[in-house]
Amino acid sequence: MAVMTSSSGAPAASGTGRRPLLNRRLAEFGTTIFAEMSALAVRTGSINLGQGFPDTDGPEEVREAAVRALRDGRGNQYPPGPGVPELRQAVAAHQQRRYGLSYDPDTEVLVTAGATEAIAASLLALLEPGDEVVALEPYYDSYAACIAMAGGTRVPVTLRPHEEAPEGPDGDMDDAARSFRLDLDELRDAVTDRTRVLLINTPHNPTGTVLTREELTAIAELAVERDLLVVTDEVYEHLVFDDAEHIPLATFPGMRERTVTIGSAGKTFSFTGWKVGWVTGSPELIGAVRSAKQFLTYVSSGPFQYAVAEALALPDTYFESFRQDMQAKRDLLSEGLREAGFAVYQPAGTYFVTTDIRPLGESDGFAFCRALPERAGVVAIPNAVFYDHRAAGAPFVRFAFCKQREVLEEAVKRLRS
Questions:
Q1: Lowest mean pLDDT across 142-156, 159-173, 365-379
Q2: Where does the Aminotransferase class I/classII large domain start and stop, copy by copy (predicted)?
Q3: Are residues 165 and 240 in the same domain?
Q4: 14 pLDDT exceeds 90?
Q5: Do 87 and 50 lie in a common domain?
Q6: Which CATH number covers residue 183?
Q7: CA 237, CA 350: separation in Å to the nearest integer?
């Protein structure tokens, strides 16, 4: 029997009157933009600055730790459901050393198949149909899909573009400091009696915003006042630049017992294919998330868990060197994009630069990104895919700078020309 497909590639209903094959909660989600643009990069031979993965491996000693674990037979069979003890202990030690957060590795740390599973398990565990989730928009695309799968309702609060003119009478708006900011009043207004979860992402993908202490204080006070749970995605915790500071939401008064904090090895150690993530929180929260997680992957990444345990114990010099390298790449790409005519929103964190294409005489990010490989041999991502309010994201385009310096230099050369 032939199966019809919709324009999104999903199986569609035939003429027999049957309902569509795809669960209606997922009907709005087709093939991800990352798959589409990565395929376009391959087809056109373009430089892929769309999908956020490094083009070089992380520290050699961490890779060798994975090889050693494989050869020693550690993790080649099913690891423990919560994760190998060595990694859970390393995560707890990392949170204590860097943030003064104390977690019991046996009851308050859970290893997941990357941050993506951590997000899915957390939302599936904590939501029931009809619950509302307030999320910062634009948001990582899996947030919307996971909320839908859990039967929840997403309520976006939009980070707004902001321009700060240079000081002095001769200031040129071409040199304006551009960023995206959270409207705290809008956040408060979004919370209703049906709100169950605040889904916070800082450092924020795709805008590069790092929430300030004042903003996080207000979020914490709101969560306590309205008795809300918080899921906070902090996978870019080690990629903050200039004067920005990453402060875990769980460190604020009243937040430890209501916050599920998500971390990941992929972004910090440049081994994104290993898919090793984790969640930390109170025993009650972690127990709930584990109940959902065990029916997703159950376990994963056995040998890699041992390697990540060693990676988390690397000296502070590694983390600082990694941050400095990424900041230099951010500056290289940002300056090149400015010279090519884009308005650039300088990120305070992550490894993405958001640009405004309107100075180029363009306004449709989708059309721009689909044409860019043929025009310039470079692939980017239209930010509108991360918005419910598509018009708000229409003129913005995201570029990734987690690539080798020579790759970024070639991309800049192509865009300038």
A1: 159-173
A2: 47-415
A3: yes
A4: no
A5: no
A6: 3.40.640.10
A7: 8
Do 225 and 346 lie in one domain? The reply is: no
Rounded percentage of the chain residues whose pLDDT exceeds 70: 93
Question: What's the rounded Cα separation, in Å, for the pair 75 and 147?
Answer: 32
Does a structural domain hold residue 13?
no
Q: Do 374 and 299 belong together in one domain?
A: no
| Average confidence (pLDDT) over 144-173 | 84
Chain-wide mean pLDDT for the chain? 93
Please report the pLDDT score of residue 13 as a whole number: 54
Look at residue 188 and tell me if it is in a domain.
yes
CA angle, 261 as apex, 255 and 263 as ends, to 5°?
155
Q: Which CA distances in Å does 42 have to 38, 335, 379, 385, 411?
A: 6, 26, 10, 21, 15
Its pTM stands at 0.92
Residue 329 lies in a domain: yes
Tens digit of pLDDT for each residue in 303-324? 999 999 999 999 999 999 999 9
| Domain stop point among 275, 296, 313 | 313
177-181 and 160-164 beta bridge pairing: antiparallel
Determine the structural domain holding residue 283 and report its residue range: 60-313
211 and 120, same structural domain? yes
CA 192: distance to chain centroid?
26
Could you tell me if 161 and 276 lie in one domain?
Answer: yes
**Paired sense of beta strands 160-164 and 153-158, if any:** unpaired
Q: How many domains does the chain have?
A: 2
pLDDT tens column, 214-266: 999 999 999 999 999 999 999 999 999 999 999 999 999 999 999 999 999 99
In the prediction, which pLDDT does 19 show? Answer: 86
Non-local CB neighbours of 118 within 8 Å, separated by 6+ positions: 112, 262, 264, 277, 278, 279, 289, 293
Q: Are residues 141 and 53 in the same domain?
A: no
**Residue in the structure block whose two tokens are 């809008």:** 186
Please check whether residue 227 is in contact with residue 220, taking contact to mean a CB–CB distance below 8 angstroms: no
| 48 C-beta neighbours (distance < 10 Å), count | 21
Residues 152 and 225 in one domain: yes
